[in-house]
Specification:
By secondary structure, the protein is mainly alpha-helical. The protein folds into 2 domains: 126 residues, DNA polymerase, domain 1 (Orthogonal Bundle); 114 residues, hpI Integrase, Chain A, CATH 1.10.443. The protein contains 13 helices and 3 strands. Strand 1 and strand 2 form a beta hairpin. Helix 12 packs across helix 13. The longest helix has 21 residues. One of its GO terms (molecular function) is DNA binding. This is Phage integrase family protein. Keywords: DNA recombination.
């Protein structure tokens, strides 16, 4: 996989951005809770009553992001976090399942554990709530199976499909729906339209070369085709419909892997290099819960080791 590690300058810039995000979320916290939340954030950053290993600014922002909706809800009822009881924690988790429940519970557990350590609350109501959850483990593809992957294909369409999955972690559906007008060849980017957002994919040199090769082949093979989609076949070239799922998955069947396996491998590779959930959210356009899951898999314990723990 290509080395996409951020530079020292970008790391500092990202840290500053996460700090500003945390400050904005503190401002969004109900006023009566803000001093407690500031004390918790300070403890997570190693600035509490007792010295501790600081968490990264990105991790702190993610913790607060998970806790904020709950705090806003409690703000309508309580004047102090000292009034929160076990049943309030349980009710806060009712609308969550699986890892989402785990993430919210972890954030609340950290909050009350930190506040108790800072002597701002007397009890930790989150401690008594079970935080177990079930999830499918993410597994990378073995390196020997990835070696020379692109060399196994001669067809230009198969090679660009492979690049979009194995380098940019697009889904099969996103590749099927990718249109020519969503690609800016001059700037080297593509806009991926998703149900509730748009994600920008920046092409690396290999993807750019493979894209040019495919478009050149497409022009020679079907010069009069007005099909608006990037990928076309002999069947779809005279039409305005996209190719089938079977067409997209064919190259993966030939090598005995699935597009899903390669997509997971790519995101795990990035998570291993950066350890930064926000980086994954930016590069791949995935949600914060999914990003944390990948970083947790790549760096076991990163989010379970809380500096406010006794």
């Amino acid at each position: 996989m290509a080395d996409c590690s951020p530079t020292t300058g970008s790391i500092a810039s990202n840290a500053a951005r996460h700090t500003q995000r945390t400050l904005r979320m503190i401002d969004d916290t109900p006023p009566q809770f803000q001093e407690d939340v500031r004390a918790w954030v300070a403890a997570l950053g190693g600035r509490g009553r007792r010295p501790s290993r600081p968490l990264s600014e990105a991790t702190i922002a993610i913790y607060l992001n998970f806790a904020l909706p709950v705090l806003i809800g409690w703000g309508e009822t309580y004047e102090s976090l000292r009034a929160v009881e076990v049943r309030d924690i349980e009710e806060a988790l009712v609308g969550h399942a699986g890892q989402s429940r785990h993430n919210v519970h972890t954030a609340l557990r950290s909050l009350f554990r930190g506040l108790k350590r800072e002597r701002r609350v007397f009890a930790d109501p989150a401690r008594a709530v079970a935080g177990r959850y079930n999830r499918r483990m993410l597994r990378p593809v073995s390196s020997d199976r990835l070696h020379g992957l692109f060399e196994q294909f001669e067809r230009a369409d198969h090679r660009i499909i492979l690049a979009l999955v194995a380098i940019h972690a697009l889904t099969i559906e996103e590749i099927i729906d990718l249109r020519l007008d969503q690609i800016n060849r001059t700037s080297g980017r593509a806009t991926i339209v998703r149900p509730h957002t748009r994600h920008t994919v920046w092409f690396d040199q290999l993807t750019t070369e493979l894209l040019h090769s495919w478009l050149a082949y497409r022009h020679v093979r079907w010069p009069s085709s007005a099909n608006p989609y990037l990928l076309i076949s002999g069947y779809t070239a005279p039409t305005a419909v996209p190719v089938s799922r079977h067409y997209i998955t064919r190259p993966f069947r030939e090598i005995g892997l699935t597009a899903g396996q390669l997509r997971v491998d790519r995101i795990l590779d990035e998570a291993t290099q950066t350890g930064d959930p926000v980086r994954l959210m930016t590069v791949f356009g995935i949600g914060n819960t999914t990003a944390v899951r990948y970083v947790r898999t790549a760096h076991p314990g990163q989010f379970d080791v809380d500096p406010t723990a006794p």
